[in-house]
Amino acid sequence: MSANEPVSHLSEAELRAMTADLDAMHHDLTLPALKTSLAEWADDIRAQAAARRAENDERAERARVNRRRFLAGTGGVAGVALLAACSSSSSSSSSAVASSSAAASGSASASSSAMAGGFGQNLTGDLQVVAMAASLENSGIATYTAGIKAATAGKLGTVPPAIVTFAETAMSQHEDHQKAWNSVLTAGGKQPVTGVDPVVQPVINTAFAKVTTVGGLAALALMVENIAGETYQNGLSVISSAAGIKTAASIEPVEFQHAAILSFVLGKYPVPNAFTGVSLARPPSDYS
Amino acid sequence: MEIDESALRGLIEESQDTHADGVRAAREPLADMVDLGRQARAGASTDPDENRAFARGNRSRLAATARRAGGLLAGAGVVAAFADFIGGTAFASSGTDVQVLQTASSIEVLAISTYKTALTLPYIGGSAANPVIKAFATMTMSQHADHLAAFQSATTALGGKKQTKPDPAFVPVVFKAVTAITKATAADGALLVVGLALELENIAAETYVNNMSLLTSANAKKVTASIMGVEAQHVAILNAVQALLKAGAGADITLPPPAAKLPAAAGSVGFPNAFYPVSSAASATQGALA
């Protein structure tokens, strides 16, 4: 608590120094904790995958043993006939495996094209949430990048320095978030998601084409921030790993902070709701 | 463009419409929790041994906190008012989720009382107040009351007892700050109030962020997740307000602010961390009840 500290007026330089101090504190305290959470989450995801593989192996082994018992329990002609049927079934099953291999290689080649940008990796569980989040961060980065470019080109009129700082800082934080999400994917042996959200991005593009003022850009950014915040809020009830929950919980409030400042700048009440909702949340199941 | 108080009230009313979606997000899990709570009470799902061990571990720490708090508060003659929540109450005989929710309630109680006290000051809630700061304090107090009700409902839904008292660990610190505020000039007092509110909001946000991975009930997680972002938003606005007050630019605290007049660094002062920290988080169970 610092309520007894003497009051002093701040200059721009002091304000910058204060921000730098907070930034240093962030790097000293927050990032090491985040790295630990990310590493633990990656371990959890690997453990979940191993458990799923073990479960599948066990199921296959049970099926094999059952079939052997069944065959051992039959005899004579019936047994020969069944054996023949099973061989044929086995060969059709081999064909099925081959087909599924073909399908797999087909889908692999399909996914090679779909995997441009990290999509189409057949993700499940926590990794679906992570992929969705990474793509939303990419859309956020793309929005701010386009906004800064338009401002620099003079397409938005005069842009106040504080707004430039906001856009640059928010974009940089989205880059940090994207790296965090993608580090979980790569640690889990998956490709990082470098593409934008395929559902949200067309909406952003259409809206951005009509933006001619700083206010218009702020309104668009507000929509993107709320979608991200609500998606992560929703993700918190889907993620199974405790370390994953820690990571998502450390990012969700930051997107809502961006939203609050954008609302303030737009002249809207900055904290309009006592509870943030999930009606704008993107469902993780969109990424499989 | 500056706006008057009635315009600001209009904006707040407008925001109440969008508030409905958020309320639904909290209400649905709460309704589910009522059912789960009934099941838990019927099946006695909490582990009494685990809870007793937890209680033993916390009792001595809390007793020390209570003694420290009692010492500070005695000087101001308000010990009696707080004695029932900092004096040797039996501790933590319920599940972790309930304890975490009770601690969250205790933080909300403290936040409500702090804003309520602040609004009695002429430069925060009176005629001398900046209308944006006054509206923010009023609305924020109301949002904390909503949070308290949600955490309390979640607690009782899980079979726990409603926490109605403030977090004992923070009471002496708040009291000390309030004492300093009452002795300060209006300009200094406003900055001290904002500083105190900022500390409490940050403790709330960090505590809830930290609690997310401790909660086991899906609905308790949903309720907490729908609140922590709001506390972080309070922090962002208070960070910006504090920076403007410190820069002697209190007149620029308007809705919207005069963006063209603001220094470049003002654009990022509201949200200094890419990842929300938890270093100021309260112990998840320090506000738990018997």
End-to-end distance of chain A: 47 Å
Average residue pLDDT of chain A: 78
Q: In percent, how much strand structure appears in the residues of chain A?
A: under 5%
* Rounded average pLDDT of chain B: 78
How many distinct folded domains of chain B?
1
CATH architecture field of chain B: Up-down Bundle
| CATH fold field value of chain A | Ferritin
Q: How does CATH name the architecture of chain A?
A: Up-down Bundle
For the record, what CATH class of chain A applies? Mainly Alpha
- Biggest sheet descriptor of chain B: none
The 3D shape of chain B can be described as: globular
CATH homologous superfamily (4th level) name of chain B: Ferritin, core subunit, four-helix bundle
Number of strands of chain A: 0
Figure out the total of helices of chain A: 7
Please write the CATH class name of chain B.
Mainly Alpha
H/E element string of chain B?
HHHHHHHHH
Pick out the low-confidence regions of chain B.
Answer: 1-5, 36-41, 43-93
Q: Give the beta-strand count of chain B.
A: 0
